[in-house]
Amino acid sequence: MKLSIVTTLYYSAPHIEEFCRRITAVAHSVAGDDYEIIMVNDGSPDNSLAIALQLAAQDPHLVVVDLSRNFGHHKAVLAGLREACGEKIFLIDCDLEEEPELLASFYETMLREKVDLVYGVQEKRKGGWFERWSGVLYYRIFNYLSDMPLVHNQLMARLMTRQFAEALVSFPERKIFLGGLFVLSGFTQLAFLCVKHSKGSTTYSLAKKAEQAIDAITSFSAKPLYLIFYLGICIFFFSSILLTFFVIRTIVWGNVLLGWTSTIVMLLMLFGIIMMSIGILGIYLSKIFEEVKTRPHVIVRKVWRDKDVAMRI
Prior knowledge:
By secondary structure, this protein is an alpha/beta fold. The protein has two domains: 3-220 and 295-312, Alpha-Beta Complex (Spore Coat Polysaccharide Biosynthesis Protein SpsA, Chain A); 223-292, no CATH class. The protein has helices at residues 16-31, 48-58, 73-83, 102-113, 129-145, 162-169, 178-185, 206-220, 223-253, 260-292, 306-312, and strands at residues 3-9, 35-41, 62-67, 88-91, 117-122, 154-161, 189-194, 300-304. It has an eight-stranded mixed sheet with strand order 7-5-6-4-1-2-3-8, with helices on both faces. Strand 2 (35-41), helix 2 and strand 3 (62-67) form a beta-alpha-beta unit. The longest helix is centred in the C-terminal third of the chain and has 33 residues, at 260-292. It starts with a strand and ends with a helix.
């Protein structure tokens, strides 16, 4: 097969029909009739699955992968990549924030530049001031702490060769951060500037974004552990200087009764540092705990292909 298109469904019902219509048009212009569109239902609570199956009954190019529950966006993406059969695989979200027509531009660029991966990068990060500045802060912190630096403002939209996709799905880890795995996979990669539209709402809450950021950093860097060590050294030297100061002060001016404020402040500061350090260690231990259980990334309830959909309908 010449081309596979992979997308995931989660609260996607309002966008599926338009997405399929637009991606089908561009896929046909690129690959003729030799393509497939794989839609992974990541336990969506709305009627996304029903809409996808209805469309698949009318179009034999559509493949619907139904997961047994919600496993998370990145794991659902990998599940779709495992089902893909194409020589080239286009990955994109179906919420229409990324234009399906990017496929044609990516495909042309890949053939011209002879690269293994073409990925989208926002010319200007979408959203309000908080989303833009928090994005800048996230990438700067990640790149400072990680040995695998990321290009700022990457999109999910990307076109890859089959060899690249096979390398990507070969990673066995359970805590998945696709942005890092794309870099870790290597091969020749090329950024493509494009625009990401804003639909005004997102299924990623602030807490979920923060959790994802912590997972991303701790999955690709051990530097937070080293920072704890350096912080302990700094506190030791500061305490030694402070102790020396108090000893000299006692010898020169006699025993001076110090106030409680400085004592309480120091105790609270040290308590906060200790709790933060234990928390960082706990995050790394939890990752080890998740990995050693070797649970499957996802559980697939059923894969609906042309004849299966027809039988169901």
